Amino acid sequence: MYEYRQVLVRMRQGDSDRQIAAARLMGRSKAAKLRRVASEHGWLEAERPLPDDTALAEVLGQRETHPGPSSQVEPHRERILAWTRAGITGTTIHQALVREHGFSGSYSAIRRFLQANEPAPLKATVRLDFAPGEAAQVDFGAGPRILDTDTGELRKTWVFVMTLCFSRHQYAELIWRQDVATWLACHRHAFEWFNGVPKRVIIDNAKCAIILAHRRDPEVQRAYGECAEGYGFKIDACPPREPQLKGRVEAGVKYLKQAFLPLREFRSLADANAKLRQWILAEAGNRIHGTTREQPLALFESVEKALLGRLPDVPPELAVWAKLKVHRDAHVQFEKAYYSVPFRLLGQTLWLKATSDVVRLYQEHVLVATHVRQLRPGARSTVADHMPPNALAFAMRDPQWCLKQAKAVGPQCRALIERLF
Q1: Are the C-beta atoms of residues 20 and 10 closer than 8 Å to each other?
Q2: Class of domain 135-307
Q3: Residues 287, 132, 206, 222: is their CA dihedral positive or negative?
Q4: Which pTM does this prediction carry?
């Protein structure tokens, strides 16, 4: 009732509904309704004391009910409450009432009824505490549209954020895409930024990291598993539908989007990332964090940095894996390019391992083909020995193949071809 008392004071002082709305005390239409009620009860007369909260609640509480929708919902009260306790959503309840009970009210009426009768209970959570160097949390967030200097077009970007759970120091990078190769590269850049590796990396169930989310045994992308093995960290995927377990990094993404991205102009992706790194070191890292009451960068330098795992002497190979079926032309397709394999493998499923410059194909654990990575869409890399003899002869079209084809046509055709050769 405090809000109403403040508005009544302003009305007594002569403020209009527009002025009250401009002061953000109450919307104009709501203020107009309150003014009518106040006039009916004499609340605007300066010589009379303002009503206490109980009196206001008795009058305004009655005025704020919705008799129309409530009267429509009320006959279904017990049914709706039973469905709600069974975990059925409001939209499903509304659809069932319309379909099976001739209900003509709106979904909003159902929602207001549920809010008034079955307020959603607060779900208790436990704050997660971490030792220095124990863990980092990772997430993607939507970034701004930035000029692609290669095409001259504005493109959507994403922001990758890795936050160390103890110090809250972070690494962030704006990227063009959320694919596996980018995900792995961002991890490498983050570990090099921190000059160390946390014991575990807590992630959401992004498809570039997790193939199949599961509470106890998620299926991890093979490429990400190799990255974790090479750098020596444990992948810790959040259970499905429990993103609150990854709150630090999501708060970091939100802070970055509120404090860094607005009111800045970026000439290119490289320019944006240079400014982002500068901002982390100059501003984000030196602010007093709301939870730790410490400066993230100072806490990182003084405590956490020394307790991170060492970077490997030789950076691990970051490769993308894909399971592919061999086509009838003895090629597999990967990222719009084609690579040959021995023709005896037609129709079989192989593993393809792609780095930035090499593609390798495996039958189970046996290497069956190696190619230079093709980056142009539609490009083909074909090894002659992979082709069956007849297909190879057709591709080469050597004299023996031509003579054989001519003989199949007839002796005169063969004689003509012999003279040509």
Answers
A1: yes
A2: alpha beta
A3: positive
A4: 0.62
